[in-house]
Amino acid sequence: MDPLAIKIQDMSFKYDGDTSISYTHFNLTIAKGERFGLFGPNGAGKTTLMNLMTGLLPFNEGSIEVLGQQIKGNHKQISKLFGFIPQDFSFYQELSPAENLQFFGAWSGLNKQQIKSRTTELLEILGLADVRDKPVQHFSGGMKRRVNLAIGVIHNPPILFLDEPTVGVDVQTRHAIINYLLELNKNGTTLIYTSHQLSEAEDLCQKVALIDEAKIVAHDDLSALLLEHEQDGLEGLFLSLTGKDYRN
Ligand SMILES: Nc1ncnc2c1ncn2[C@@H]1O[C@H](COP(=O)(O)OP(=O)(O)OP(=O)(O)O)[C@@H](O)[C@H]1O
Question: What mean pLDDT, rounded, does the chain reach?
């Protein structure tokens, strides 16, 4: 069994038209069971890379493997190997958490019984049991983030992609989400995370990659990078490697 969750080899990608970034002969590996954080300034290409790794964007050259399987030509099988918690809410606002989980659970190939037990379990863990049948549109931002998370993990994926999973939440929800993610990782889930919340990232990630203009500027254990660059936190490391200029 391949010990890698993700293997990107010589991958090139460019958006149609004249945009500021393109990936050129890009390489990256993420080991199984890793808590991997991808960081970089606005517009560095983090979301683009997430979308390439999940097959949402087709790349032009090279290869991307997820748990040893090529993405190209295998979209359906690959999509069962991961959950994706996108930056934007990805559920039906007019449906309740239970109805959303029923829909997305069926979409991921779970049977009725599996959906029922996972829904009860997840809504309990994520503090949504009391509102399981209420329309999501009336929920607070923190509750909506938890619904987004429940949907992404309903099928118990071995890899979880998280694109800014805690934007706009209060301290309690952030704490609960991070603890839940750490628990998933203890049970073997590979976490691939990106965020601008660097103190949160220090709690969550053991391995980090910093990217700028679609190129890796550093990739190692967080503790090794801090030592190497004589920094005591991710924010200092980030500024020392990507500079202090504004990005668009
Ligand atoms: N669908 C698209 N079509 C054309 N260009 C795009 C598209 N999506 C993103 N871009 C461009 O690609 C670049 C990288 O965007 P991306 O969203 O990947 O960056 P990011 O690192 O996630 O930024 P942020 O931290 O602001 O979320 C930006 O210049 C953006 O304008």
Answer: 93
C-alpha 166 – ligand 1 centre gap (Å)? 19
Predicted ipTM? 0.98
Spell out the domain ranges in the chain.
1-81+161-169+195-248
Residue 157 or residue 168, greater confidence = 157
Helix intervals (H) in the chain = 46-53, 75-79, 97-107, 112-125, 141-153, 171-186, 198-204, 222-228, 234-242
Q: What is the mean pLDDT of residues 121-144?
A: 95
86 lines ligand 1 (CB under 6 A): no
Question: Of all protein residues, whose CA lies closest to atom 8 belonging to ligand 1?
Answer: 48
Q: Give domain 1-81+161-169+195-248's CATH superfamily.
A: P-loop containing nucleotide triphosphate hydrolases (3.40.50.300)
